[in-house]
Amino acid sequence: TSGRRMLNLYGPAEFTIWATSSAALRPDRPVTIGGPIGGAAVLVLDDRLRPVPAGVAGELYLSGSALARGYHRRPDLTAARFVADPFGAPGSRLYRTGDLARWVRDTAGTLELEYVGRTDFQIKVRGQRVELGEIDAVLTRA
């Protein structure tokens, strides 16, 4: 509709919901998750926490002031998902999103993120995280 813009926003609850924003979506362009918003740092890393080149998929990591401290009374999960930031100041952390992404160039040559998929079997149903492995385990026992 004339005069209206639609954006694609990306972010997990661990980063106060919103970490990236796309440019205004256009019907003649692929939908991306854009680039980091102010105060957010977004990295695409390999399994050794090394940046991957543009066009190569890797796990998406987030850091910045909006990053949660961890999970309430879940030190095991906090340790697995909130890792030391090898590029940041001492004590800074990165959040492992479990999402796969790659940097791609738009028509103007600007880098933006393309969402590729998940590293696990987690999906969302009406905004709630669902682990497909847990469903499979329950059904296997039945």
From TrEMBL:
**Which GO MF terms does the UniProt record name?**
phosphopantetheine binding
A GO CC term attached to the entry: cytoplasm
Keyword annotations from UniProtKB, A to Z: Phosphopantetheine, Phosphoprotein
Does the keyword field hold Oxidoreductase? no
Coiled-coil residues are none
SUPFAM superfamilies per the UniProt record, alphabetical: Acetyl-CoA synthetase-like
Q: Can the keyword Phosphoprotein be found in this entry's annotation?
A: yes
Q: Which residues form the AMP-dependent synthetase/ligase domain?
A: 4-72
Q: Which domain of life is it from?
A: Bacteria
Please give the InterPro entries that the UniProt record associates with this protein.
AMP-bd_C_sf (IPR045851), AMP-dep_synth/lig_dom (IPR000873), ANL_N_sf (IPR042099)
PANTHER family attached to this UniProt entry:
FATTY ACID SYNTHASE (PTHR45527:SF1), NONRIBOSOMAL PEPTIDE SYNTHETASE (PTHR45527)
Protein name per Swiss-Prot or TrEMBL: AMP-binding protein
What organism does the record attribute this protein to?
Answer: Nocardia cyriacigeorgica
